[in-house]
Design brief:
Number of helices: 12
CATH topology of the largest domain: Uridine Diphospho-n-acetylenolpyruvylglucosamine Reductase, domain 3
CATH class of the largest domain: Alpha Beta
CATH architecture of the largest domain: 2-Layer Sandwich
Order of helices and strands: EHEHEEEHHHHHHEEHEEEEEEEHHH
Largest sheet: 5 strands, antiparallel
Oligomer: single chain
Distance between the termini: 61 Å
Strand content: 25-35%
Bound molecules: flavin-adenine dinucleotide
Structural class: alpha+beta
C-alpha cells in the first residue's frame, strides 16, 4: 500500500517542478496551505495517498503588502494575519468580514482566503467578496506567472482553472480610492460555524452622492460564485435609492441558479439572495460616504 508523502519546498521553482514531475508520472499531489480543508478531506472524501506539497515555507506566499496602488495577499497568509492589518481592514472591510466568517478563531489562525478560493466550494465565503473587490489571481507556472480574474478561476464545484505544474501564489487587489467601499453578507441557519445558504459581496464607488462604479457577486446559489453585471448596472448612476436596490436585488435573483437541499430550497435561496444584495449595497454605500 502506498503512503502519503510530504514535501515543503522553499522556492516557487521547486514547487512548480515538483507538481509538474508528479503530473507527468501520474502521481497525485495536493497543495497544503492552512490545511483546514485538506485535513478534513484526508479523513473523509479525498483519502487516496498523494504527495502533500506545503507552500508555507515560501517567502512569496507569506507576502501581505498594502501599497499605494495595490494590495497583495499571499496564498499562505492566514485570515488572522489579515485581520491584524488595520490598513487592509479599513480599505476592504467587506473582504475582511468574509474572511472573519470562515470557521472559528482557531480555524482562522490557519485558514487562508486563497485556500478558500482554490477549494472552490460554491459556498466559499471569500470568493464573492474577492470578485466584488476586483481581485486577480497571481498564478505561479513553470515558465513564470499568469494572471486571471477571480470570477474566472473557479470552473465548477471543487474545480479551479489551475493547470498541471501550477499553483496560486496570491491575489492582487486594486487599492480602492476615496468613496469606494465593499461589504459581504451571508445567510446561515446558525449564527456561527455554518456555511452560507446564500452570500453577496458588493463594492460601490459613490461620488457626490451618485454611484459611479459597482461590482456585485453572489455565492452559494450556483455551482460557482458569479459576478452579476446587471446588478452593477442597476446601481451605477443612481443614488442607491430603493428602486436601484430593488433592481439590483432582482438581477441577483435572476442570475442565481440554486439547488434545493436540506439547508434551503432553491426558491428560498433566490429570495434570500435578493434581500442580501439590497442590504449589502446599503452597508457598502454607507461606508463609501463615511470618509
Ligand atoms: C470548522 C470549520 C469551519 C469552516 N467554516 C467555513 C465557513 O464558514 N466558510 C467557508 O467558506 N469555509 C469554511 N471552512 C472551510 C475552510 O476553512 C476554508 O475553505 C479555508 O479558507 C481553506 O483555507 P486553507 O488555507 O486551510 O486551505 P487548505 O485546506 O490548505 O486547502 C484547501 C484546498 O485548496 C488547495 N490549495 C490551497 N492553497 C492552494 C494554492 N495556493 N494553490 C493551489 N491550490 C491550493 C488545497 O490543495 C486544497 O484542495 C471551514 C472549515 C472548518 C474546518
Amino acid at each position: 500500500m502506498e503512503a502519503y508523502a510530504y514535501a515543503a519546498p522553499s522556492s516557487i521553482a521547486e514547487v512548480t517542478a515538483l507538481l509538474q514531475e508528479h503530473a507527468n508520472d501520474g502521481r497525485p499531489t495536493q497543495i497544503l496551505a492552512g490545511g483546514t480543508d485538506v485535513l478534513v478531506q484526508m479523513r473523509s472524501s479525498r483519502r487516496a495517498p498523494r504527495t502533500i506539497v506545503d507552500i508555507k515555507r515560501l517567502q512569496e506566499t507569506n507576502r501581505l503588502e498594502v501599497s499605494q496602488d495595490q494590495i497583495y495577499i499571499g496564498s499562505a497568509v492566514p485570515s488572522a494575519r489579515m485581520q491584524e492589518n488595520s490598513e487592509l481592514k479599513a480599505l476592504y472591510p467587506g473582504l475582511l468580514e468574509a474572511a472573519d466568517l470562515i470557521g472559528s478563531t482557531q480555524v482562522q489562525g490557519r485558514a487562508t482566503i486563497c485556500g478558500n478560493l482554490c477549494n472552490a466550494s460554491p459556498a466559499g465565503d471569500s470568493i464573492p467578496a474577492l470578485i466584488a473587490a476586483g481581485a486577480v489571481c497571481d498564478i505561479a507556472t513553470q515558465s513564470g506567472a499568469r494572471e486571471m480574474a477571480v470570477e474566472r478561476f473557479v470552473v465548477g464545484v471543487g474545480r479551479n482553472a489551475l493547470a498541471d505544474g501550477e499553483f496560486l501564489l496570491g491575489v492582487k487587489l486594486p487599492r480602492p480610492g476615496v468613496g469606494t467601499k465593499d461589504a459581504y453578507l451571508r445567510f446561515t441557519p446558525r449564527t456561527e460555524m455554518d456555511i452560507a445558504v446564500a452570500g453577496v459581496g458588493v463594492s460601490v464607488t459613490v461620488q457626490d452622492g451618485i454611484c459611479s462604479a459597482a461590482r456585485v457577486a453572489i455565492g452559494a446559489v450556483a455551482t460557482t460564485a458569479l459576478l452579476v453585471p446587471d446588478a452593477a448596472k442597476a446601481l451605477i448612476g443612481s443614488t442607491l435609492d430603493d428602486d436601484a436596490l430593488q433592481a439590483a436585488g432582482n438581477a441577483c435573483q435572476a442570475a442565481a441558479q440554486p439547488i434545493s437541499d436540506k439547508r434551503g430550497s432553491a426558491a428560498y435561496r433566490k429570495k434570500i439572495v435578493a434581500v442580501l444584495c439590497r442590504r449589502a449595497v446599503q452597508v457598502a454605500g454607507a461606508r463609501a460616504i463615511e470618509r
